[in-house]
Every structure is written in structure tokens, then in C-alpha cells.
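step=predict obj=(S)-ureidoglycine aminohydrolase cupin domain-containing protein n=115
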Amino acid sequence: MPTHFLSIDTDSVEPEEGAPAPDRLISGAPKFRTWNVEEAEGGLYAGIWEATPGKWRIVYDEWEFCHILSGVSVVTEDGGEARTVKAGDSFVLRPGFKGSWEVLETTRKEYVIRL
């Protein structure tokens, strides 16, 4: 019988490795690992993302809920204030968000993305 319960578990999925696009890199040499454990119809994704220190430009066309599991990052919206996020913090980045993401200490987050 199929289950409708899915654990967000990094042991169940091989991580995708990545990095910011070269034209978006501001500083450092950040590396990403993404464990995408759910991909549902209509462009819904959920999983865990991790990044090493560095800074890059971000542009969001999608809606994303984030919950920081570990580390420290600074998310800055163009023309807005810099927000430091750390373990326990939750937030939403809405479509149209433009700015930068700077990882000060390797950061791991849970995410839910809706395209």
C-alpha cells in the first residue's frame, strides 16, 4: 500500500552537487549540496539544501519557504536591509525577490518550493 507520509531524510537520496553560476558569484567559492526528496505535480519541491561560505546574487521567480537547520547566513534584498538567519529561523522568499545570499558559516536549510 502506498504511503502518504514522507520523511525529509538525507539518507534516502543522493545529493546533487552545485555552485552559483559564475556570473552571479560575488565572493568566495561556495559549493551546494541539495537533497530533493519530494517533487510533486504542479512544480512543488521539498528537501534539504546546504552551502559552504561565499556570497552570490539570487533572483527568485518561485515561492520558497526556508527553515534554517544549522549555520549562519545573511540574506539581503536589493534596496532592503540585510537579515542574518541562523538555526531555528524560518522565512519565505517570494517571487520577484532579488538580492544576495552570503553564507558566513556552512548553512543547511529545509525548503519547500512552489513554482
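step=describe
The chain has one domain: 14-114.
step=end
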